[in-house]
């Protein structure tokens, strides 16, 4: 085999660790619980890298405020919970297609760099985040870099590692910082979820190596 062919077939460490999937932590904030009818208001994503020792770490983060799509439902209870004013002029919100493009661009670049075939969404109860993401992708008529239905759930991992399923309690049980005043913003929740995911996976990796 020539050196050039060898380079093409060599797989990155994270590609090998997750069978060709690239973990990307995602959190969304919304105007309700129905992905088909309720507004997507915020999206944040953090790509996950792997160092030479097989340890995971947070790489690039990206977040965006999203304009409610035409006809979107906005539940007041959800807005009160998140504290989001969807029509505030200083949100500088983008249309769904523009917002998704901003989120997907660094993910696609990371897929190309690592040789991974698809991103896999990491989230806390990720069926919710993936459902809203898939619905927005469908409305925007875009192609998503994420696997359509597979995901990694930090609620399950937190239950396994720490006996906790609530994000705040899992994060604190892992010995990580949690600021309740910052919670329920997409970027903060994504960063804390990413920290939790890396902590659990790296702890398991150390146990495997010992």
Strand order of the largest sheet: 3-2-1-4-5
Low-confidence region ranges:
1-9
How many strand units? 5
Radius of gyration from the alpha-carbon trace, in angstroms: 18 Å
CATH architecture: 2-Layer Sandwich
Main sheet, how many strands, which sense, barrel?
Answer: 5 strands, mixed
How does the overall form come out from the CA principal axes? globular
Taken together, the total number of domains comes to 1
How much helix, percentage-wise, in residues? 40-55%
Order of helices and strands: HHEEEHHEHEHHH
Structural class: alpha/beta
User: Which percent range describes the beta-strand content?
Assistant: 15-25%
Features:
globular, disordered N terminus, 210 residues, single chain, alpha/beta, Nucleotidyltransferase, domain 5, 8 helices
Describe what you observe in this structure.
With 210 residues, the protein is α/β, with parallel strands linked by helices. The chain has a single domain (17-209), classed as Nucleotidyltransferase, domain 5, CATH 3.30.420.10. The chain has helices at 3-9, 13-17, 76-82, 96-114, 126-140, 154-162, 167-173, 186-209; strands at residues 21-30, 40-50, 56-65, 118-123, 146-153. The protein has a 5-stranded mixed sheet, sandwiched between helices. A hairpin with a 5-residue loop joins strand 2 and strand 3 (56-65). It is globular. It starts with a helix and ends with a helix.
């Amino acid at each position: 085999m020539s050196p050039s062919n060898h380079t093409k077939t060599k797989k990155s460490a994270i590609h090998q660790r997750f069978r060709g999937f690239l973990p990307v932590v995602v959190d969304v904030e919304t105007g309700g619980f129905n992905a088909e009818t309720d507004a997507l208001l915020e999206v944040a994503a953090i790509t996950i890298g792997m160092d030479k020792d097989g340890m995971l770490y947070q790489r690039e983060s990206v977040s965006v405020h999203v304009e409610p799509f035409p006809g979107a439902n906005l539940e007041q209870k959800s807005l009160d919970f998140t504290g989001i004013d969807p029509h505030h002029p200083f949100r500088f919100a983008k249309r769904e297609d523009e917002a998704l493009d901003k989120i997907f661009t660094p993910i696609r670049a990371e897929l190309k760099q690592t040789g991974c075939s698809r991103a896999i969404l990491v989230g806390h109860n990720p069926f919710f985040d993936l459902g809203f993401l898939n619905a927005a992708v469908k409305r925007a008529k875009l192609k998503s870099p994420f696997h359509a239905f597979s995901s990694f759930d930090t609620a399950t991992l937190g239950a396994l590692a720490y006996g906790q399923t609530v994000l705040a309690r899992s994060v604190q049980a892992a010995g990580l910082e949690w600021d309740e005043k910052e919670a329920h913003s997409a970027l903060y929740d994504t960063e804390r979820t990413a920290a939790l995911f890396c902590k659990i996976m790296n702890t398991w990796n150390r146990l495997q190596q010992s």
